[in-house]
Each structure stands twice: as C-alpha cells, then as structure tokens.
C-alpha cells in the first residue's frame, strides 16, 4: 500500500495571543498550551479555521524514512520562557531551547509529498523583540506592508505546510517528483529592506532616515511617517544581490548644520554637510531589478525652492507630477530604483 499511496493526518497550525504584550504561541496540539498556562495567552476565536498545518508526529515511520525522507521534523520548544517552532536541524545545536514536544512535519519544497504552497516562515520584530510565524502568502504580504507597524522580517523558511482543510487524507504516488508549486519564498533570496522614515522635532523640522534609534543627530526627533519606499539594507551581501538583480548604489544620511537639514543622498558634494551613516542601497538599472523583484519603483528627491531645508522623496508618477507641476518643487534627480515594505524575496 505504501508504495502507491499512504494515509496522512494533518494538524492545523493555530495560535493564541497575550493581549498585553501581543506575544503569540503557535501550536498543533493543545497539550502545548499547558506548558505556558501562566503566560496569559487567550484563544484566538477566529471563525475562519486554519488553512495550513503540519503532518502529525505519528506519521508512519516508513513514510518518514523511505517515501518522504526530506520531510522536516518541527518541534515546540521554549527559549528563555518564550514558545518557538524549531526544526530538528536548528534544534540539535541550540543549547538555549528546551523541547516541549513534537509539532509535526513540513515539506522541503512546495508540493513535496502532498505539501501545499503555504510556507512556514519564522519572522522577528525588533520593536516587540518577538518571533511570529507566517503560514500563508497573505501573512507574508501583511508583514511586508508593515500593516501593524511592528516591522516583522523573515529570519528563515522552516518548510512547507499541508492543506489543513481536509485533515485526514491520502497522498498518492509520485510523492516527490512533482514540480514545485509557485511560491513567494521558494528558491528565492531574502532581501531585507528598510523603509524611509520621516521624523520631526518640536520646532517642526523634519529628517529622513532608515533608522533613528541610537542616532545622536536625531535625539530630539520623534516618529512621524513611514514612506512606501524602502532602501535595501546596508548589511546586504552586495555580491550575491548584484549578481541576481544588477548593480547597486549606496545611499548615505547627511546632516547640514547650517540649514539643519538631515537627508538621504548619493554622494558627498557639499562641504557643509556631515556624512552620518549608511542608509541602504538602491538599484542602478530598472530592467534587471524588475526581472529579479517584480515590484520596482524609482525614487526621486525633491526640494522646496522657497525653503531648501524642506525635502521630499517620491516614487509614484502621480506624486512626482504633483511635486513637479503643482507644488513647483525642484526635482533633484533620480536616486535609483527600489522596492517597498520591510523585505522582499528576489528571484535567483
């Protein structure tokens, strides 16, 4: 029987949340909740059942060892008191993780041994200092849009989930010869992006940065707005990304003490300005970047001719036209091409 098909039980992946700190616990079995019963998690009473889940830990050994050897074993663990989902390959060298119990199995690529196109992606928020898990393309898109302003970024793809709408199912041969399904993360390069942030001080002066934490120049400034324009993180492996998506140019953050202007610039061409730090990269060529990322937009810098400390960055044709024709601001030129959100997955 196992040579042509095998039965499979899928455990839907659910989560509960602590309303005080918004930390979540993800689980495939409710028995996990007992280990964190004092942590204040409240059940997520969504009327929509989970779409994706993990193959049961009780899956037949012959399936795991022979038919589908590239299934990834996932565990519920506690790391410094916080719940996490960790693969066996990451767990065996992790001395800080305490195993709670097995969560189940996920596939090594979408379509492998009956898996779906739903990816289990670990994400981290530097704002909350917490981990969460995306289990659908919709989850990933919401995180990329920074919908909750917590700047979630993927840290790793754990594997590919099973469709949980039919928890008891039969998987038919071929088990691993199916062409991988289209998926937003499979066989892609994770590209960390930094949205342009506008900050403002009590006097109404604005500054533009990709991070104003621990920045002495912006101590008196407070968050004002996140732009729908992002720079590629300055810690990016330039050689890898350039090979896939084309050449890049580094953008810097400059401060002018005379005009009190803090802005993003390509180069140091003003003796009055001080270079503060690297802000991130943009692509030089649109066509190669678009082939790689799909969603590519230009970034233009505008300056108010009547008040030169007023700077604005724009990407949409409508906004470029507004600042050029209606507001009559000076277009300081094209800085390069970039994308949007907290991250992107680039084609290899």
UniProtKB/TrEMBL annotation:
Organism: Caenorhabditis nigoni
Protein name: Uncharacterized protein
């Amino acid at each position: 029987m196992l040579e042509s098909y095998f039965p499979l039980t899928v455990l839907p992946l659910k989560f509960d949340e602590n309303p005080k700190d918004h930390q979540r616990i993800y689980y495939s079995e409710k028995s996990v909740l007992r280990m964190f019963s004092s942590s204040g998690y409240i059940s997520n009473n969504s009327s929509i059942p989970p779409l994706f889940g993990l193959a049961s830990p009780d899956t037949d050994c012959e399936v795991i060892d022979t038919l589908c050897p590239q299934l990834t074993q996932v565990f519920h663990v506690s790391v410094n008191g916080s719940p996490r989902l960790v693969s066996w390959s990451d767990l065996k060298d992790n001395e800080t993780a305490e195993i709670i119990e097995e969560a189940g199995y996920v596939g090594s690529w979408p379509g492998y041994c009956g898996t779906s196109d739903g990816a289990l992606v670990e994400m981290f928020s530097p704002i909350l200092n917490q981990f969460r898990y995306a289990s659908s393309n919709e989850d990933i898109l919401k995180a990329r849009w920074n919908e909750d302003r917590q700047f979630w970024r993927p840290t790793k793809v754990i594997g590919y989930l099973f469709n949980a709408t039919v928890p008891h199912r039969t998987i038919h041969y071929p088990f691993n010869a199916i062409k991988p399904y289209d998926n937003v993360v499979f066989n892609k390069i994770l590209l960390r992006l930094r949205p342009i942030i506008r900050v403002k001080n009590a006097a109404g002066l604005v500054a533009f940065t990709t991070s104003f934490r621990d920045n002495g120049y912006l101590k008196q400034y407070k968050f004002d707005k996140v732009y729908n324009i992002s720079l590629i993180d300055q810690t990016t492996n330039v050689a890898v990304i350039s090979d896939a998506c084309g050449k890049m140019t580094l953008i810097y953050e400059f401060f002018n003490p005379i005009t009190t202007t803090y802005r993003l610039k390509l180069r140091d061409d003003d003796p009055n300005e001080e270079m503060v730090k690297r802000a991130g990269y943009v692509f030089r060529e649109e066509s190669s970047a678009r082939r790689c990322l799909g969603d590519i937009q230009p970034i233009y810098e505008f300056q108010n001719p009547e008040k030169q400390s007023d700077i604005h960055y724009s990407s949409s044709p409508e906004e470029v036209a507004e600042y050029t024709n209606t507001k009559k601001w000076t277009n300081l030129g094209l800085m390069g091409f970039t994308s949007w959100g907290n991250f992107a997955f680039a084609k290899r």
